[in-house]
Amino acid sequence: MSDDINKLAYDLLWTWQPAIQNLFRTIDPERWEQTRQNPVLLLSQLGDEGVKEALKRDDVNKAFDEAKTAFRQYYDRNPPFLDAHAPMVIGYFSLEFGIAECLPIYSGGLGVLAGDHLKATSDVGLPLVAVSLFYKQGFGRQDIDAEARQVEVYSENKGSDLPVKKLEGVEVEAPIGGTNVKIAVWKAQVGRVPLFLLDTDLPSNPPEMRTITDRLYVPEPDKRLRQEIVLGIGGVRALRAMGIAANVFHLNEGHSFLCAIERIRELRSSRQMTLEEARLVARAGIVFTTHTPIAAGSDYFEPGLVWDLLGPYLQQVGINFDRFMDLGRQRPGDPRERLCTTYAALRLADQSVGVSRLHGAVSRRLWKDAWRGLQETQVPISSVTNGVHMPTWLAPEISTILSRFVGPDWWDLDGTDGRWHAVLEIPASELWSVHTDLKRKLFEFVATRDERPAELDPKALTIGFGRRFAPYKRADLLLNDRPRLTKLLHDAKRPVQFLFAGKSHPADQPGKDILRRVVSLGREESNVVFLKDYDIELAGRLVQGSDVWLNNPRRFLEASGTSGMKAAANGVLNVSVLDGWWDEGYRPELGWAIPSGATLDRPATDDRAEAEGLYRLLEKEVVPAYFQRDAAGIPQRWVQMMRASIRHVVTDFSARRMVLDYFGQTYAPGARRVEQLRLLPDWGG
Ligand SMILES: *Cc1c(COP(=O)(O)O)cnc(C)c1O
Hints:
Layout: H1 2-10, H2 18-27, H3 29-34, H4 39-55, H5 58-76, E1 90-93, H6 109-124, E2 128-133, E3 141-144, E4 150-153, E5 165-176, E6 179-190, E7 193-199, H7 207-210, H8 221-241, E8 248-252, H9 258-271, H10 275-284, E9 286-289, E10 300-301, H11 303-317, H12 321-327, E11 339-340, H13 341-348, E12 351-354, H14 357-366, E13 381-383, H15 390-393, H16 396-405, H17 428-449, E14 461-466, H18 482-489, E15 496-501, H19 509-524, E16 528-531, H20 536-545, E17 548-551, H21 563-569, E18 573-577, H22 582-585, E19 591-594, H23 607-627, H24 636-652, H25 655-679
Parallel strand pairs: 1-2, 1-8, 2-7, 8-9, 9-12, 12-13, 14-15, 14-17, 15-16, 17-18, 18-19
Antiparallel strand pairs: 3-4, 5-6, 6-7, 10-11
Helix pairs in contact: 1-4, 2-5, 6-25, 8-9, 8-11, 9-10, 17-20, 20-21
Bound molecules: pyridoxal-5'-phosphate (PLP).
């Protein structure tokens, strides 16, 4: 019995199976929230006796049965790829994974995307394993002080309190300068996909090595490079120590570029390849996703630092130090230039992609110097547009509607499937009533998180804005013309209210200033609420219960953006600049485009003109559409847009579509080429 329940607690499948989640909530609703929805901590706090007692309750027993059924059904359903005999194992490397609030190894969008990648991979059954670091302190939580400033709070996590297990007997080493750092391995189970977390906090390591993995995104280049050595080199070695024959490696961002070098080293030592042979075979199986639309988004390392930390290792692999540095230089041969991880990853990977079509074009322009002499259009960077894991982000109420109208396996259907037409036939009264209910639930949740009791009006058009407070995202664009904003907020007949949430990076002062302006606005205006500590749970509530999702970045700076996909899939209509995913997802029947004059050749944006465009859009189109009601009080045209939004976004911007694109465009061809190269007869020498 308690074995069974432990199995449910340690498998992060619960994060996308409402029936399993419901079991833990039913056992102890308060503790469930107190532990930040951590089933392992919940069970350990209750103890064996407490769990036994709980299982005697009828409601718990019923929930337990339903949870076990959901678990069994998930694993009994044979996903299409599980039986494929492809000689392929993909190693997916990322510095962060956002899977559940209680596993604090993520900071934001990149991590949540990586987490969604694993969940969708589990659903379709691709042979993939994931590697990251085990941060004891995670990323800071956000508090707001009396002066409306952000304060970061770090807390220490114990492995035994988290849904992870230490793998006894697995220990590897990675070279840092002249010494080897020892690495322990933990495992989190994400459905069918194992996520291995590397940990240097071992008593046998010297103190400065023990802290390598204590925090995510440390600003010090020295520590960052150490982390990247542990992830890239240590990660490949950890897979081998566990007997995992990964032959395709997916680098989610440039942080894990050293994985490619370690791959070259192992090919050289196990197959006596020349450096050039090893480089070509390794390269055939390397897939790289770049996420940044600006050069400054990459990591840069000074030659001296690289020499100190990687010199001896490179010598052992047989790579000349200057040639290695040149991999990461815009101008190979310039000894002063730093190593840029994006250039390095682009030159080591056979397949490089951006995260939306538009970002692919931006990336070809930005990084074209990696292939000097090639025309921009010929630069070998394509794109796989991001997607979100629908079973995680859809409100259970919306999933239920899809199950009824489309089919219980809606989450596993291609966008071309004829059954999707049924979405357009969902009765307006039903969809509207579900939406109103989700909005009410959001407001109840807000009441538990808001710093002052919010007076949210269920009838007001509620506009959500939740994302990192980086300057380019312009969270304060609406404040451009304060009288005009005030008029929008206080129209007695057609009231509008805003919910803001988001953190700024601890070192980003301009971002923090914008955050302060927005928090202050919330303190002055009753119709504006700032919710602190944006996290996976709050993100979920906001994208399910707002009426409109607002995104107004400077064009070309939002590589993809994924929160808008989460909103759109729940029938929350997007009002957004045509950037990232919205540039390809936008159609007038499912949302609105904020006009921007920026083009790829003239990317400068005019904040004032765009604020003006945003006000006009809200005043003339969005607000009137929302308040145009029929006799029953239903906004028929609005609901029609909700249906179209759900219909298109649930399939076209799902993580399922994304991982299948990665499979078809990159993993499968990569694995095939590696295998063909492996089977070439040896020429000796
Ligand atoms: C989806 C998500 C993000 C990414 O949102 P963007 O629109 O890409 O900025 C960031 N943080 C959390 C918690 C999320 O769920």
